[in-house]
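Hi R.,

Here's the chain you asked about this morning:
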Amino acid sequence: MQLLVNVDHVATLRNARGEGYPDPTEAAIVCEKAGATGIVFHLRKDRRHIKTEDVYQLKEAVKGDLDFEMAATDEMLTISKDVNPELVTLVPESREELTTEGGLDMETVFDDFRDRVFPAYEDTNIAISLFIDPNKKDIELAAEAWQ
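And the predicted structure, written out as tokens:
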């Protein structure tokens, strides 16, 4: 069993304070020293939690696995491929949500993921994870999209 710790809300607190602390990279280092095998972060389009510079600092500092949660936008595909984490987790994003509230609607994203997103990672060693709801239809579509 492995433990990956999400540091998004450390960044949320830093951003709310308008100061440089607490620092999500320092939090990640503490988590790894305490036994975490890796770190999770979500770089949102609106940068409300983690900022772009945090991503590169985390890549430099984290010794274990790095899980880059993101919407499947061209911008995020480019940044994730540049950062080269061990894993990207594709999640839905809504401007109104406080944090991710549900899984991907696989019926809606199926063609885009199969034709654009998955091929973008073919020349990398980055694993892909899908954040989906535990319903039969989305699970079946997720499995089919990989074929």
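The longest strand covers residues 65-70.

Let me know if you need anything else.
M.
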